[in-house]
Design goal:
174 residues; mainly alpha; 8 helices; single chain; 56% helix
């Protein structure tokens, strides 16, 4: 939710994203949508912000302590996304400091499983390589293939399994 951001903050960040849209990295396939769509952003849009745009769009908009804390996550993620193993200890320290900052700035209730999983991110990169080598970003734009096979959001794996069985039972005409 964007409830802690005022309308004017979201508008300023949208304006800044519009100004840098022409410089969007080629590995980010999804084009930027403004912050009025924040609740509907896809993973690639968050990645664009986290890895590239945050230093530009958040500076002077977020309070300095929030901005500085977010930069810790942004820098750590950038290190882990580009295979800079010599900086993994720095990334681990930045992630730990970010999580302490989240608790101090927003309260313990902000800690969800997603935040807990960040504590394991550096270890996973040490085992599996950079984040791109085991992320699901490249599959995000293909989710529509699965979504069109679903009749509802209830038990999607079960529905996909049944659809797969159904498709494989069709006679082969060739």
């Amino acid at each position: 939710s964007s409830s802690f951001l005022s309308k004017s903050q979201r508008e300023e960040m949208s304006k800044r994203m519009g100004n840098i849209a022409n410089f969007q990295p080629s590995e980010i396939s999804r084009k930027f949508r403004d912050f009025s769509h924040l609740g509907h952003f896809k993973a690639n849009e968050y990645r664009l912000i986290l890895l590239y745009a945050a230093p530009v769009i958040f500076k002077g908009v977020l309070p300095p302590e929030h901005y500085d804390n977010f930069l810790k996550l942004s820098i750590a993620t950038r290190i882990l996304s580009h295979g800079h193993k010599q900086f993994h200890d720095d990334a681990r320290k930045l992630v730990d400091e970010f999580l302490i900052g989240v608790e101090n700035l927003y309260g313990r209730e902000w800690f969800t499983l997603k935040f807990h999983l960040l504590t394991h991110l550096v270890d996973e990169c040490e085992r599996n390589g950079d984040m791109y080598s085991f992320s699901a970003y490249k599959f995000e734009s293909h989710m529509n293939v699965f979504n069109k096979e679903l009749q509802s959001h209830t038990r999607p794996l079960h529905q996909l399994y049944n659809r797969f069985i159904e498709l494989n039972k069709k006679p082969n005409i060739f």
